[in-house]
Amino acid sequence: MKKRKILIIDDEEDIRTVTALTLETVAEWDVVIATNGKEGIQRARQEHPDAILLDVMMPEMDGPTTFRNLQAIAETRQIPVLLLTAKVQAVDQQRFADLGVAGVLFKPFDPLTLANQIAGVLGWMD
């Protein structure tokens, strides 16, 4: 796979650590970390990642609100966003799909297949 840069926005340290380690080790992607939505928006503007992996449930600014803010900024609007969530109810999935995100990935995830899941959703099979 081509070298990619992924921004992980998640308030849970364990999830950030496992996700970053997985994507750096398995896919050899560069990983940028943000611990909340506000920081994530700043990092997206600074780092111009190839994609954003965004947690849904975060304090202060949740994932859907962060996504809407990213969409309102010209320089981050085109960055594909994948939501990472434990919410698997059909109504939640439909709400996330209606946002216009590139995809939704579910917790818990298999660290060994996460990079392939992301690449598959985004069409990065190169």
Automatic annotation (TrEMBL):
One of its GO terms (biological process) is phosphorelay signal transduction system. SUPFAM superfamilies: CheY-like. Residues 5-122 form the Response regulatory domain. Keywords: Phosphoprotein. The modification 4-aspartylphosphate is found at D55. InterPro entries: Bact_response_regulator, CheY-like_superfamily, Sig_transdc_resp-reg_receiver. Pfam families: Response_reg. This is Two-component response regulator.
